[in-house]
């Protein structure tokens, strides 16, 4: 009898993570969903179980340093095999760095970087032993340019992008692949959570559809691609940023992310 394997998705009850969970379920993957809100986890599990897959929920606060280790240990103790890891959970904080809350930013660094690194290491080691596995890390087009008004968030995503490409290179030819998904500004609760709803990018821009982002991410992961930039306009924006000096890219991003009522 073939061993049952699972796709583990952090942040799997909201936004892009939720849409990814739906795509995985639609394609017949059993799921382990991780989020903080137990009620939302149960609601999402019931919805996805209707697609005929097993859905296990684990409530964990990945803002806490010990949580990713506890999550891995719990999955081991339950005898579950994770053959796909999706590190989706992440947050940002809006505002100029001199004025923002450093403790919230340290939490964001813990969530966006430290928890992702821990989960990647622990599950990667198991995947390498088996000689098979896939990891999808949520990067962002924010990884490709300095981001005034979101300096810490852009910095964390630059880390995720560099880290993913580096580890992918280390494990090439092992049967394990790492893929980075780079969405642009997407229509999720991200901007509300980041207190960013007054920014030009939200007020004046057209936000991307998280369903399309999730589809792009899933397909790139299953192909074993190193990265995918979701959406044509985002590909253009990244190409333009790559040709600019960092100072010009930062100035360009400042204009896009400044409050809509400010002239810059």
Automatic annotation (TrEMBL):
The keyword DNA repair does not apply. Coiled coil: none annotated. Keywords: Oxidoreductase. One of its GO terms (molecular function) is oxidoreductase activity. InterPro entries: NAD(P)-bd_dom_sf, SDR_fam. Belongs to the short-chain dehydrogenases/reductases (SDR) family. This is Oxidoreductase. It comes from Niastella populi. The lineage of its organism: Bacteria, Pseudomonadati, Bacteroidota, Chitinophagia, Chitinophagales.
